[in-house]
Request: fold
Amino acid sequence: MDVKQDDIRGKIRGHDYRAEISTDLPFRKWLYSWLFDPKIEFNYQKEVENWIALLIVVNLMALLFEQVPQIHEPHALLFHVFDIFSVIVFSIEYLMRLYVAPEDEEFNSDNKKGLAYLRYMKSPFAIVDFFSVAPFYLQAFLPVDLRMLRFLRLLRILKIFRILIPAYQQFVIANKGRTFRQKMHALVFPSEYGGSLQGLFDTFIVVWVIISVVSVVLESVTAIEYILHIQFIIVDAIAVGIFTMEYCMRLYCCVEEPGFESAVTGRFKQAKSSSSVIDFLAILPFFLEIILHHLMDLRFLRVFRLMRLLKLTRYTGATATLTKVIAREMPVLGASAFIMLLLVILTASLGYLFEHDAQPEKFDNIPQSIYWAVITLASVGYGDISPVTAGGRIMTIFLALLGIGIFAIPAALLSSAFTDQLRIERETLTNALYEMLSDGIISEEEAEIINLEAKRLHLSEEDVNRLIDKARKERELKDDVSVLPLHKIAATSEHAVEHYRILISQIRMLGIMTDRERFELVAIKNSRLSAQELDLWRQIQNNESESSSS
Reply:
């Protein structure tokens, strides 16, 4: 089996080694290939777009905060410096894209350099790029008040369409002929039809989760809440609208997921899943406060908006792995929790026994002593409650030392089980690689599966390469029938025939490499071979001699 290992690794990393960018290219073509060519998977095109997108988002936030005098006026210089930095970056991007326009097939179909520059400048993206920096230069060089043009900086947000439009076009092509519900499913659930647009949708939700949680945290600061009260209300309303839309979309199209096909029970099953419950609780406080605010004070529910942070668990594979670990080790964890409960009650009872007479206000009863027992066994010991009698202190010493080991059991169990679960899942990936390498080729679909699994398991490129090497060696070992035990060889007719062929070949080689007469003399003299075995030996060698002579 001839497996081109570099090609396999190239597919898994998302590119083909045969498409390496040559350093002998002209500078302009080399620059375009490295930074802007979307057809070359392993260049820096996606990184450039992602950093530009991040800068656009930060610019939008800066524009919003500029409308708050209490924030903008004390930090006007900082806002101005950031605006200059953004303009420099966007200007460099615009000039570089203009410079490499002749290398882009979209603008240079007839190989005319001058027309390529003109076509690029007339393109929608180039116009947006130009007007996103134009207000700065107009204000800098024209002696007129152009503050009214500052709203043009909002056009910078349109630069994000440079990422969205190609992703949308790819999404449309991949979902051609599919129903609306199937398209929505491809957008909100990971699948082969989602493409990069599904990843952008997830990123959009993650960004709004972070914005929402940060606003909830800052809202608790009185000085900030006083300044940004209206902004916090608007952000919360937008966040709830986005999360509500996502929740409804998932309920609507979940019937396209395997195991959720039923229109009613499938959606009910989706609604009671842990991720959907978290999504529901993330938006519930907002609606309860609107509906019931005239009946009771529900402002305390606002703190539960922080549960939106749990939505991020959907976007990390480590959470799913930890859930499996907890479910698998639940009996052991339950036994450990039971022992800790017994130890806490015993400690609280002994504390009450020794300290009640000396400190009746602190050890008034056993339930009140439980607080002291927990912080003692956990080796925290805040010092607000501590024994004063000799018996109580001696008991505390022993129980505190015992608590170090008892309370460490769950952490050790989870750590060990988590490592073991990761090992199991990586072995599963190795087995999948083992099967994929059976034909010596890893298809694009198989490469995509490996990429998703590597991302979920947080495997680096080097880790994936090591798994490939391991799977390849195991596959080669399987192909070498001679190293298998005889009972395994005999269990498969193909292996048995192959092993028999190898043995016959070795007997022939032995006849060529040894002295036949001396071999037969020793075999007869020492009775090491039976007459039948010796006849078979002679027949094989005679046939080999006849084949050689002919």
